[in-house]
Amino acid sequence: MIRYVFVTGLVVALISSLATAKSPIVAGFERFHADGSPRGGRLLATELGCVNCHTSGDKTLLVKQGPILTEVGSRVRVSWLRKYLSDPHATKPGTTMPHVLANDPDAKDKVEALVHLLASTASAKHDRAKGAAAGRDLYGKVGCVACHGPRDASGKEGTLLPSSVPLGDLVSKYTLPGLTKFLQNPAHTRPSGRMPKLLDDKMAADVASYLLQGQKMGVQGGTGTTGYKYYQGSWDRLPDFSKLTPAGEGVASGIELAVATRDSDYAVIFEGYFEIKKEGKYSFVLNSDDGSKLYIDGKLVVDNDLIHAPVAKRGETELKVGVHSARIEFFQGGGGAELTATINGPGVKNRPLGDLLSATKDTVGKSTVAKGIEGDDITIDPALVEKGKGVFASAGCASCHTLAVKGKPIESGRKGEALVKLSEGKGCLSDRPGMGVPVYGLSDAQKKALASAIKALPEVKASKEVIAETMTVFNCYACHARDKVGGVQPDLDKAFQTVQPEMGDEGRLPPPLDGAGAKLQADYLNQILNNGAHHRPYMHTRMPGFGGAVPAPFVAALKESDKLPAIAEVKFADPIGKVKSQARYLSGGTAFGCIKCHTFNGKKAEGVQGIDMTLMPQRLERDWFHAYIANPQAVRPGTRMPASFVLGKSVLPDVLDGTAVQQIEALWIYLKDGATAQAPAGMTGGKYIPLVPTTTAILYRNFIEGAGARAIAVGYPEKMHLAFDANGLRLAMIWQGDFMNAGRHWTDRGVGYEPPAGDNIVRLHSGVPFAVLKSVEEVWPTDDVRKLGWRFRGYTLDDKERPTFRYALGEIEVQDLPLPEVKGKATSLKRTFSLTAPAGTQEITYRAAVSNKIEPVGDGAFKVDGTWTIKATSARVRKSAGKDELIVPVSFKDGKATFAVEYVW
Amino acid sequence: MKTIRFSLAGLLLTALFLPLELASAQKKKGPVKSAGEEEYYKILTFTPPEGAVVEGGAIEVLPDGRVAVGTRRGEIWMLENAYDTDPKNAKWTRFAHGLHEVLGLSWKDGWLYVTQRPDVTRIKDSKGTGKADTFECITDGWEINGDYHEYAFGSRFDKDGNIWITLCLTGSFNSSSKFRGWAGKVTKDGKFVPTTSGVRSPGGIGMNAEGEVFYTDNQGPWNGTCHLKHVKEGGFVGHPDSFKWYTDPAAQYLGAAPMVPKSGSRIVTEAKRIPQLIPPVVSFPYGIMGQSASGVECDLSEGKFGPFAKQLFVGDQTHSTLMRCFIEKVNGRYQGVCFPFKAGFGSGVVPVRQGKDGSMFVGSTNRGWGSRGPKPFAVERLTWTGKVPFEIKEMRAKPDGFELVFTKPADAATAGDPKSYAMSCYTYIYQGAYGSPVVDRTTPEVTKATVSPDGLSVRLEVKGIVEGNIHELTSKGVKSKDSEGLLHTEAYYTLNQIPKE
Questions:
Q1: What DSSP string describes A391-430?
Q2: Given A503, A652, A753, which is nearest B374 (Cβ)?
Q3: Could you give the number of structural domains in chain A?
Q4: Do A593 and A671 fall into the same domain?
Q5: Which of A254, B50, B95, B317 has the maximal Cβ count within 10 Å?
Q6: A793 vs B118: CB contact, 8 Å cut-off?
Q7: Whether ipTM exceeds 0.90
């Protein structure tokens, strides 16, 4: 009875697994050979490991080894091993591993033995996830997505392309330290290079954290944990949490937004306790996108609320020795999401606050309980391990996988017939595989392809074939096109982004490899194939490293098939030093202007930051350098690189002999000096253009820090200067000493705001300058100046080019003349206002200063914040909206009024 | 000999590097500075005073003979004796300073109207000192937020007394400040009226002989290449981020925003769906006819600038060239052709302005954007030598092909031989991503060429013309009656519509 049930169960399991099984996914097959061509069969023969059992005499096959399992216990979870070995295709749809125990009546026992064997190789390590947000960003940007397809914010698989290599349920499969270690050096586990190294150590940890989000670690408090409450909703500021019901709560690993189950419209509260061992002042920096607040012991310390891009805010508080509570409230609208909190104080140097918190008061100072994951408990049974070794050999696991026990790899006990001796429709290709036959779940096209390949394995001899097969096997085609084959697939195009959108596609998409053999030196090709590279700093993606797995014939084939006409040796009349000097001039800002778009030994270019010039002779073939610079569009259609030569003639005919070949060769020789070459002419300095008023005033209209985008700075020979904000209609700043440095705005593209070049800067208040107040208590209007109807009308200049600013509210017109005054050693800036208004206008009020503290010091003078003085006749101080305001009533007589204020600082 | 060797090498490279489909397009170099251009048009170079940095952003010609040059540094320089045959005789005076990137100048009744980043300000020398002392802000109906890309280009006055403005997008991608990505007019009473959405990154604005307004827009999002576009009230010219301002009170008179175009489509396809969308009048093939289209100026000299009366001359900043455009109206909309015209300006061409004697004043800069012209800036004047080059003066669309009009009678045998011509046809993707590769390439065939009795025109019957695409015509075999070859053999017609008759 029992036996009967068991067999039935197995049959049911088998049938259902066949029904739902997905055929193995080999990216190159699905994308280029889905019709089942013989070349596709050749590809499958290596990628499915056929030739690992069924030997072939073809030495050009790029044999693929399975993952090395010697330390598999440290990275793969026991529960997953059990599930996967019981039914690989159901557990990881698209897997290339066959089900070797599919028709085996003892499968269950054998699987258990294998699980004990694999789990005995190493014990699993656990860690808390950190940096999932950064990992999400990386996964989408650096290139993971090109082979593995998109994933959602929580790390779950999105809608894959037919050729996406599926990753399966990673959360169930990996431990965090295991996946991190794997991503840090994939070749250590998978030496055949199908999974290249794309990430540095930190990036690998972040991506692993992102992929394993939601893995329930059994964190139960202890240092580095918090209690969290998660809410869903749409807000533009932090909500009143007391009125909300959480959508989830529990214990989190520190302050980690991964507790959110979606990308936008949510809020989280993290609470925890920490111990202070030294009394003193502690500061906290709260960085978030969008808003957040930090409370310490119930007191608001940092307020970083509202919708914004990542913004860091600081706050501080005194803390006594003992245990304190921290509460961080955070909400996310749309777009990017970020939250970090750091603490700094006696004995604590800028530590992430999340690392110090404990979810409960009684676990403060105790180590985190994060021992394992539910379902992964196993007590290794030595007898089962021993049995597992036998199964590992007899089932043929060892034909693809290396598993060394005490340094000695288990040998496979299974040998297939040679590939040439196989026949269609039999064995693995059979529709009903018999006992002991590995079940691949092959699609009809795959069967067709393999059948034709075993009949006659297509040869790979010509360079073109070597290149195409290598690019298919290693999935270079996921990113690079060559001969109109491959390249980024349209559905993934958006994932490839740039830090310099102005460069267009050139700045974001990996380059096509047409002509790459003629372009790049063999050594460089080998170096980037082995180690990867990120030599295009403007591109988020980068070249992954295949760790020596790409065989030498690939580079040889590229060099063989891509050739350019050789450029003969170039002879110069000038000595070589002079040739280099001319080349330095050519590359500089007043000649070809290479420095406008290319960095030089890390020095920034003026506009976009293209590939570094000193890298060029390390990467490029000289013939290619000549061809490209002579005619960029011919070599790289659509490139933004401008041509400096027309029909072989230089636009600078007087340099060297004026020919393209001489000038380009000179550049080549010059750049070969690399870092030791003197940077191109104009590359350094040039950003300093001081504006110095000598006899007349200088006006400088531009983006001025502290005075806005529509600022008008005025420099006076008296070395007192000002910036007027023509949008806010206010004197924004006054200062002394140097006036302005125009270097930022008058070189390159003029990006950003420039502060005053001088010192003793006084920043004045904003808000509408004049208002009609109905009573002495009426609060000063807070509306935008333009919204209130005020308009800038321009200015007039006197004979020393000193401006009188004009602005108006309808028929009320203001003339505002600032003038420096020098009386011996005493200096000041006097501002004379002349107003006109329609007849009948009685009084208007001018607000001369707003500050925390304004005190009368006699003689119509007022000290502001104890630092500078303003003189204003008949002015008075009033308290309004929590500040001191200096108010000047202005009375009209026959529609006219005049008054003055004077700044002494 | 040298020339032949080079083009062979070019072909070889092409074959090696390019997918076959693209290869034929790339045989051609950019607009070639033929040895012959100088014979017909000469560049005269002015020398600014020692220390002055005159990166031309706008040029205006004054009735009293002075020429005003507005600069990126916010200065306005006046040139006297600007028409002297020796440019060294020009006298430079700084008329004003302290303005914010001058990209538009227009003279009226003693005032110089300056279009600068945040506003239009009119300025005047009221005391006769030679320096402006009165600066009156006329309008500031748009906004800036401190992003360097938020440029404002201004035209001269149109016949109704309006100044037309184009406003670059924030960062050239988005419309983060009011009316960024719009064109509009500043009326006589100082009101800014936004008229046209969809602007991306303009390089210049001008008018044709009929007074219609045209501006250039540059390759980038929703612009597969650089274009000359028509500014029409109520129109939409391509980039939809500007739509957010349709609800602003100043734009509400235009009604609701147009439908958002579908990224990845073709612009004429979208124009059939979106009635407000006006496809580019002329598309400049990228890398061939420049890479950064700029100033627009019409030849209104009635022959003083040569045989191209009423045609538009368009600058290119990267290639430091002037291109020539002939446009016609088909089914009520402008479309037309561009030709290479003159290469070799000192720096990246921005403003172009015709002087009183018909010559063209050209200002240039390469600050931040590299240019083929090697100088950091230049102020130049292009004059006609009086000799008529053998050129295709006009290229007109016909239901079954094109008509070419020559500047001089053509030789009937060569001009009448279909083998004297070759045609290639392609377009660019209309998409939100930056730029576009060349797509939809075909090779129409010139099947018949019929020369008019006077030899001044030829009718080309062409098999396989494609609505919406650029038709690149090469007329290498055509000779004049005096056996001259064409000074420029290439023409690029943007065939948005095929005329019915």
A1: HHHHTTHHHH---EETTEEPPP---PPPGGG--TTSGGGS
A2: A652
A3: 6
A4: yes
A5: B317
A6: no
A7: yes
